[in-house]
Specification:
By secondary structure, the chain is mainly β. The chain has one domain: Neuraminidase (6 Propeller).
Length: 296
């Protein structure tokens, strides 16, 4: 087994490949985020927030700048029509890139006040869009533009296409990554308040989901090393999350199964490749990837 894998539970051995190596695919960025894999073109997009760019990696062709003026976008996802959904720090909006290249604003305000700085986003099978709204993009000019916070708090929102954002969770310090379980009966949301307070939260919470209503919200997992910035679930509903020293994998009950150590602080990740068994990892200045024994 490679040196970059830590097994905490024997079940993790069934999820990894003993000879798979962590590979650096691109570097030279400032803070990488928001990986999103497009199966129809076999390519990956990811953000370099401070440099205001979105990068593209195509297998066999290398990497190139996809968008030179990306509004300090952070998290991305893809809807059922194959369109890119983005969280933009600079505009404080959630947007959709149409197939024509035009950009549609999906969410920009709540209760007549501008959003803080949308951070991460997922699309439910009914077409609704769920996103987190911490203040990271307005705390300084590094990842957006310094500005006063207009919202009373940092919320998790749901918005239907053509509708207005509705808060669905109000009791977070800095809500960040989010993901549905495979059957969409649960919603996982991380709180990364530790980033700006020594005693701030550094955990993932889990909610039961009934339509558009959330209940519960208990802590699913405490992150020992750093915070959980972004995460995805695999076909067995294990949750793979970024941490301060790599990627951690938890079973559906919140038991830590194992870790993949990465040389840089990891921000986010996604499954990709034709078999969805390649884990793409955005880590500070670089993009990494490793093949695993499970699909996402």
């Amino acid at each position: 087994m490679t040196n970059n894998v830590l097994v905490h539970d024997p079940r993790f051995r069934d999820l990894i490949l003993p000879n798979a190596e962590l590979k650096k695919l691109a570097g030279g960025m400032l803070w990488t985020e928001g990986p999103a894999y497009f199966a129809q073109g076999d390519y990956l997009l990811w953000s370099d927030i401070p440099n205001n760019k979105v990068w593209q990696l195509a297998e066999g062709l290398g990497s190139r700048v996809f968008d030179h003026d990306a509004n300090n976008c952070n998290g991305h996802t893809i809807d059922a029509q194959g369109r890119l959904i983005s969280c933009e720090h600079l505009t404080r909006c959630v947007t959709r890139r149409e197939h024509s290249g035009a950009v549609t604003v999906l969410a920009s305000a709540h209760a007549g006040k501008r959003l803080n700085s949308p951070n991460d986003v997922v699309v439910k099978s009914d077409g609704s869009i769920w996103f987190t709204d911490p203040p990271y993009g307005i705390l300084s000019d590094y990842e957006g533009k310094r500005a006063d916070q207009e919202q009373d708090g940092c919320y998790v929102y749901r918005v239907e296409v053509g509708g207005t954002p509705t808060p669905v969770a109000l009791d977070f310090d800095k809500p960040n990554g989010l993901a549905f379980s495979r059957d969409e009966s649960r919603l996982y949301v991380s709180d990364t308040g530790l980033s700006h307070a020594e005693d701030g939260p550094h955990h993932i919470r889990v909610f039961d989901l009934d339509g558009d209503r959330l209940t519960g919200g208990e802590v699913f997992a405490e992150i020992e090393h750093g915070v959980s910035d972004g995460f995805r679930v695999d076909v067995h509903d294990n949750l793979w999350t970024s941490t301060g020293r790599g990627v951690s994998c938890y079973d559906p009950q919140g038991v830590l199964l194992g870790e993949i150590l990465v040389p840089e602080v990891v921000a986010n990740l996604c499954f990709g490749g034709p078999k969805r068994n390649r884990l793409f990892i955005t880590a500070t200045t670089s993009l990494y990837a490793i093949y695993v024994a499970v699909s996402g």
